[in-house]
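User: Reviewer 2 asked us to show a designed sequence for the structure in our supplementary figure. I'm pasting the C-alpha cells here. Could you produce the per-position amino acids so we can include them in the response letter?
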C-alpha cells in the first residue's frame, strides 16, 4: 500500500465509519446526530480518497452512504429542534 495523503484520508474515513458502527451496537442510548455525522464524515473522506484512487463501485457506495447519512442527520436535527 502506498502511504500517500489520499490513502491516509481514506483510512480516517474508514475509522469514522467503523466507530459509528461500533457505537450503534454498543451504546445504550443512541445519539442519532453523532451517528449520522460520523457516517457522513466517513463517506466524505472515503469519497475524497476515491477521487485520487478511483473505483466506481466504491464511489457509488460512498455516494449512497453519504446521502443516507445526510438524510438521517437532517431528520435527527429536525427532531431535536422540535423537542
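Assistant: Here is a per-position design you can include in the supplement:
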Amino acid at each position: 500500500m502506498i502511504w500517500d495523503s489520499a490513502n491516509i484520508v481514506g483510512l480516517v474515513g474508514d475509522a469514522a465509519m467503523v466507530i459509528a458502527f461500533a457505537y450503534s451496537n454498543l451504546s445504550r442510548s443512541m445519539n442519532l446526530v453523532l451517528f449520522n455525522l460520523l457516517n457522513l464524515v466517513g463517506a466524505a473522506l472515503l469519497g475524497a480518497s476515491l477521487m485520487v484512487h478511483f473505483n466506481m463501485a466504491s464511489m457509488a457506495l460512498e455516494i449512497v452512504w453519504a446521502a443516507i447519512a445526510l438524510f438521517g442527520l437532517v431528520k435527527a436535527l429536525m427532531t431535536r429542534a422540535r423537542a
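For the response letter, you might also mention the following. Helices lie at 5-26, 32-52, 56-82. The mean pLDDT is 97.
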